[in-house]
Design brief:
137 residues, 25% strand
C-alpha cells in the first residue's frame, strides 16, 4: 500500500511517501492559494499511484483540537473530494515537527537545509506514527 503523509501549513505542506513500512520525506509544497496545493497533491497521488492519504491534525496539550484544526479539516474535505476515490485519514501530528528537527540534526543537515526539509520530515514522522498505530490495532 502506498500512502502520502501530509503536514499542513498555511503557506507550505510537507509531503512524505510511504510504501509498505518504508517512509521517506518527499517534498514541501509551497502555496499561496489552496487550489494550487490541492492540484499538486493530486499530481503526486497520480505520479506515485497512491492508495490513501494521511493528514496531520494539530491537537493542543490536552489532546483536544488545536486552533488550526478547523482549517486543516476544511482543507481535508476539499482534498478528499479532489483525490477520490482514495481515502483520507486524519492523525494526531503532535510533536512531529520536533521529531523531524531531531532526526535532521542527527543526520547532520545544516540549519538552512533543515529549514527547507522540516515540513517533509514532519510529514514522514506523522506517517511513521500512523503506520505504527495500525500495527497495534
Amino acid at each position: 500500500m502506498t500512502l502520502l503523509g501530509l503536514d499542513y501549513g498555511r503557506r507550505k505542506i510537507g509531503v512524505a511517501l510511504g510504501q509498505g513500512q518504508f517512509v521517506e520525506p518527499l517534498i514541501t509544497v509551497f502555496h499561496q492559494k489552496k487550489e494550487s496545493a490541492l492540484n499538486e497533491i493530486l499530481r503526486l497521488c497520480e505520479r506515485y499511484a497512491v492508495d490513501g492519504l494521511v493528514l496531520g491534525l494539530p491537537l493542543n496539550r490536552e489532546g483536544l483540537l488545536g486552533p488550526l484544526a478547523e482549517e486543516v479539516k476544511d482543507f481535508g474535505r476539499e482534498l478528499s473530494e479532489k483525490v477520490k476515490p482514495r481515502p483520507l485519514a486524519y492523525f494526531d501530528e503532535t510533536l512531529s515537527s520536533k521529531r523531524a528537527q531531531s532526526e535532521m540534526h542527527f543526520l547532520g543537515l545544516g540549519k538552512k537545509r533543515r529549514r527547507q526539509k522540516e515540513d517533509a520530515f514532519a510529514a514522514a514522522a506523522l506517517l511513521e506514527d500512523y503506520l505504527e498505530s495500525l500495527k497495534t490495532k
